[in-house]
TrEMBL record:
The lineage of its organism: Bacteria, Pseudomonadati, Pseudomonadota, Alphaproteobacteria, Rhodobacterales. Keywords: ATP-binding, Cell membrane, Hydrolase, Membrane, Nucleotide-binding, Repeat, Sugar transport, Translocase, Transport. PROSITE patterns: ABC_TRANSPORTER_1, ABC_TRANSPORTER_2. Residues 12-248, 259-503 form the ABC transporter domain. It is found in: Cell membrane. Its EC number is 3.6.3.17. This is Ribose import ATP-binding protein RbsA. InterPro entries: AAA+_ATPase (IPR003593), ABC_carbohydrate_import_ATPase (IPR050107), ABC_transporter-like_ATP-bd (IPR003439), ABC_transporter-like_CS (IPR017871), P-loop_NTPase (IPR027417). The keyword Ligase does not apply. Its main location: membrane. GO terms for molecular function: ATP binding; ATP hydrolysis activity. One of its GO terms (cellular component) is plasma membrane.
C-alpha cells in the first residue's frame, strides 16, 4: 500500500529507518536517497547495517520506524512480492537459487508463464529466458540445471532475475565476488543499460576500485548509523575508509617485514590434473607466504584442492617435510600437516547452524571424546585459545557463526585449521566479501603466521592483496604456472602480462 509524499525527484528515499533485533539496534535512524539513473554505492564494515537496510527495502524485514518512498509515494512493503510489485529488485550476495530446478524456472520462480489451460508455457518461458541469457553472454541455456553451474554462473542467474521485471530500483549486493573479469565487464554493461533506462542502482561492494569506477555517490553506514554521502568524483579511498571505520588504514608492508625462510615444507614437481592445470612445480619454505595470482579458471583453486586430497592428480609428485606423499583425502592431508581454508567460507568452511566453539573443534572431535561424550571443557579451551590469538569478536563461544561478521567468520575458519597445528596452511581468497578494516586484520594475521614459522599459500584474485601479503608470487595462466616473482622485484604490469599470457615463459 502507498500514499503520496513529497516528491524530490528521487526514485527511492528512506527516512530515519530503524530496525532492532533482540539485544541489537541494527539500524538507528538511517537515511538514504537514490536518483533515477544513478549508481549509488552503499559502504560500511561487515555488520554496519547495509544488508539489513536493503532487506527492509526488499520487504524481507519490517522496519520498527521510519518511512519508505518510491517515486514519491510512501510505501509499506510487507513482503518481497510487494517490493517487486513496486519495482524493487534485490540481487542477493548469498545465492538464493533452487539447485534442482532449471535456470529458466529459477529466473521466473513463482511467475512462470501459463497457457490458457493453466499449464506452464515452456516455449514462452524458454524464449524469454533465452533472450535474457543472450544479453548476459553466458554459455548455458534455459533448461540447464542450476546445480551444474559454477558459483560465478549461478551469480549470473541471480543477475538475470533483475532483467525480468520493470524495475525502478535494483540492489546489487557484492555482485562481482565470484565473477570472472569478462563477466564483470558484462555486468557493468548491464548496469549502464539499466541506468540509461532511468533505473536507480544501489551497489554494495567492498572493492574500492569498482566503487570508484561505476558509482556516482557513496553513502556510508557505521554501526547501524548513517555517516554521510560523498560525491564519488570529489573524494578518494582514504576519505571513504575514514568514514567507514573512523580512521585511516596503513596498507603498506613494514620495511622490517622480510621473510626468513627455513626448511622446505612443501615441494611440488610436474603436478597435473587433466585439463585443469598442467606441469606445475614450486617449493614452499617455512616462514614464507607464496601467493598464487591469476584469472578465475587459471587452475589456482584446483591445485589447492589436489594438495588437500579433494582431487586426484594425473601426474606429478608432492613432497611434504622431505617425504613423498600421495594424498587421496582431506583426512590424509591433515595427517601430513596440511590444512586448507576454502574459497567459500559459508558453503565449504563453516556449519552455519553450529556455534563458534563447535566449528573450531570440528576437525579434531575424535580426539576430544571419551566414550560417547565430547569433552566440553577441552573444546572451550581450544576455542578460547584461538579467539584470543586471532582476536575473534563474538559474544561467547555459544554464538552461532551465522550471526558473526564476515571477517570474524573467516577467523573462525582459520582458527579451526590452525588448531590442527599444520606445517602448511593454504588460504583460498582470504578476504572475499570482507570489509576493508577486517581485510587489513586478515592480511596482518597471515604475515604473523609466516613470521611464526608457518608455510603459507595464499590464493587471491586481488592484486593489491597478493602484493601485500606474499613474499613470492606464482602467476597462473590457463592452467600453467607462468613464472614465480619475488615480491620486491615485480610490478603490477609484470603480473598483468603474466596472467594474460603475454610474454609467457616457464617458471
Amino acid at each position: 500500500m502507498s500514499d503520496h509524499g513529497d516528491d524530490t525527484g528521487s526514485v527511492l528515499r528512506l527516512e530515519k529507518i530503524v530496525k532492532t533485533f533482540p539485544g541489537v539496534r541494527a539500524l538507528d535512524g538511517v537515511d538514504f536517497e537514490l536518483r533515477p539513473g544513478e549508481v549509488h554505492a552503499l559502504m560500511g564494515e561487515n555488520g554496519a547495517g547495509k544488508s539489513t537496510l536493503m532487506k527492509v527495502l526488499a520487504g524481507m524485514y519490517q522496519p520498527d520506524g521510519g518511512r519508505i518512498f518510491i517515486d514519491g509515494l510512501r510505501c509499506t512493503l510487507p513482503t518481497p512480492i510487494a517490493a517487486k510489485e513496486m519495482g524493487v529488485i534485490l540481487i542477493h550476495q548469498e545465492l538464493s537459487l533452487a539447485e534442482e530446478m532449471t535456470v529458466a524456472e529459477n529466473i521466473f520462480l513463482g511467475e512462470l508463464p501459463r497457457s490458457r489451460f493453466g499449464f506452464v508455457d515452456w516455449g514462452v518461458l524458454d524464449k524469454r529466458v533465452g533472450d535474457i541469457l543472450k544479453m548476459l553472454n553466458v554459455d548455458f541455456g534455459p533448461r540447464t540445471k542450476v546445480n551444474r553451474l559454477s558459483i560465478a554462473k549461478k551469480q549470473m542467474v541471480e543477475i538475470a532475475r533483475a532483467l525480468t521485471h520493470d524495475a525502478k530500483v535494483v540492489v546489487f549486493d557484492e555482485p562481482t565476488a565470484s565473477l570472472t573479469d569478462a563477466e564483470k565487464v558484462v555486468l557493468f554493461d548491464i548496469i549502464g543499460d539499466l541506468q540509461a533506462r532511468g533505473v536507480g542502482i544501489v551497489y554494495i561492494s567492498h572493492r574500492m576500485e569498482e566503487i570508484f569506477k561505476i558509482s556516482d555517490r557513496i553513502s556510508i553506514l557505521r554501526d547501524g548509523s548513517y555517516r554521510g554521502t560523498l560525491i564519488t568524483a570529489e573524494t578518494d579511498e582514504d576519505a571513504v575508509t575514514r568514514a567507514m571505520i573512523g580512521r585511516s588504514l596503513d596498507l603498506s608492508r613494514d620495511a622490517g617485514d622480510v621473510a626468513r625462510p627455513g626448511d622446505v615444507k612443501l615441494a611440488v614437481e610436474g603436478l597435473s590434473c587433466g585439463s585443469l592445470y598442467q606441469d606445475v612445480s614450486f617449493k614452499l619454505r617455512a616462514g614464507e607466504v607464496l601467493g598464487f595470482y591469476g584469472l578465475v579458471g587459471a587452475g589456482r583453486t584446483e591445485i589447492a584442492e589436489t594438495l588437500f586430497g579433494l582431487r586426484r592428480p594425473s601426474a606429478g609428485t608432492v613432497t611434504l617435510n622431505g617425504e613423498a606423499v600421495q594424498i587421496t583425502s582431506p583426512a590424509e592431508a591433515i595427517a601430513h600437516g596440511l590444512s586448507l581454508v576454502p574459497e567459500s567460507r559459508k558453503e565449504q568452511g563453516l556449519v552455519l547452524g553450529m556455534n563458534c566453539r563447535d566449528n573450531i573443534t570440528l576437525p579434531q572431535i575424535d580426539n576430544l571424546t571419551s566414550g560417547p561424550f565430547v569433552s566440553g571443557p577441552q573444546e572451550v579451551a581450544i576455542y578460547e585459545k584461538y579467539r584470543e590469538r586471532l582476536e575473534i569478536k563474538a559474544p561467547s563461544w555459544r554464538a552461532m557463526v551465522k550471526n558473526l561478521s564476515g571477517g570474524n567468520q573467516q577467523k573462525i575458519v582459520i582458527g579451526k585449521w590452525l588448531s590442527m597445528k599444520p606445517d602448511v596452511l593454504i588460504v583460498d581468497e582470504p578476504t572475499r566479501g570482507i570489509d576493508v578494516g577486517s581485510k587489513a586484520e586478515i592480511h596482518n594475521l597471515i604475515r604473523e603466521l609466516a613470521a611464526q614459522g608457518l608455510a603459507v599459500i595464499v590464493i587471491s584474485s586481488e592484486m593489491p592483496e597478493v602484493l601485500r601479503v606474499s613474499d613470492r608470487i606464482a602467476a597462473m595462466h590457463q592452467g600453467r604456472l607462468v613464472t614465480i616473482f619475488e615480491r620486491d622485484a615485480v610490478t603490477e604490469d609484470d603480473l598483468i602480462q603474466a596472467i594474460s599470457g603475454i610474454g609467457v615463459h616457464a617458471a
